[in-house]
DNA sequence: TCCTACAATGGACTCTGTCTAAGTCAAGTA
DNA sequence: TACTTGACTTAGACAGAGTCCATTGTAGGA
């Protein structure tokens, strides 16, 4: 956390109250907030923060590789502070809850050359879908 | 194709000119059109078709399991008529070209119980990202 | 042919996200 | 500490994708 702020400052990132609260909101495991949710939480601490600033800051954190953009549904993008350990996502089809997961093996190797159509394959995203325990109980 | 129309009629789907042209537009391999593209192509054959009708029809075809919704970028959803053979997608990071691919193995088995958080896992989507031959050459 | 329930229409509306012009301020300099 | 400047923030307009709804049209059964 303050690690994050230190790293950013070290990279010459100009520190402002707005950027600090956005970075603070994005902390923890299994955190996957939409831009609007980030804005709402940031506004709790800094009421006058604008939507544009939140979007700008999120965009910069993504460019810096400090957070990841995730889109598990077909709606708003979500932002995942867990950018330093590779992982995939498990999503509840009913409530949208998201967990970070670490499958075994390397999914990249499962795509044979004959299925690559001449592409240079650089990455892979895996999204597991199912029903979470709370929704299954309900 | 007319298979599709036959199947739909057999399910009691009321056939209209609009539904027919939407179904006709969605035919072929490696077809991944946005709703707007479907609308544009449908309008070539039936100029007065409305956007709302295209959205309604696409939504119904998805519910019926005849086409798949795909979102490989964070923009518009795309519709994939290849719903009857399981497959995943390979996407060019530069131009957005999409190919249907068939990885080896079953990606579902790569998620150990300890990483399932009590979820009932039902499906998995895999999106490979890379650079297509034309973009690599350019 | 007539009826009626279902489908299509178009326009307003919502939700996400981007852009811009003007004002503000962090941090380096003296 | 005060000054300066370019980067940051703001509010609001704008744009793209998709949904909703009241009205109009029509497929297909009687």
UniProtKB/TrEMBL annotation, chains A, B:
Name of a matching Pfam family: FUR
InterPro entries assigned to the protein according to its UniProt record, in alphabetical order: FUR, Fur_C, WH-like_DNA-bd_sf, WH_DNA-bd_sf
Keywords from the named record: DNA-binding, Repressor, Transcription, Transcription regulation, Zinc
Signal peptide extent: none
Homology family: Belongs to the Fur family.
Name of the protein in its database record: Transcriptional repressor
Species for this entry: Streptomyces huasconensis
């Amino acid at each position: 956390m303050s690690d994050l702020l230190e790293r950013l400052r070290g990279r010459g990132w100009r520190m402002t109250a707005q950027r600090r609260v956005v970075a603070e909101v994005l902390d923890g495991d299994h955190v996957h907030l939409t831009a609007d949710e980030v804005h709402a939480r940031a506004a709790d601490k800094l009421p006058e923060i604008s939507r544009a600033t939140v979007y700008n800051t999120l965009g910069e954190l993504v460019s810096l590789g400090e957070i990841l953009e995730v889109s598990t549904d077909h709606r708003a993008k979500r932002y995942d502070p867990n950018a330093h350990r590779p992982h995939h996502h498990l999503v509840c089809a009913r409530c949208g809850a998201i967990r970070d997961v670490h499958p075994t093996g390397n999914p990249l190797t499962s795509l044979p050359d004959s299925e690559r159509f001449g592409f240079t394959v650089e990455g892979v995203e895996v999204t597991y879908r199912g029903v979470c325990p709370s929704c299954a109980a309900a």
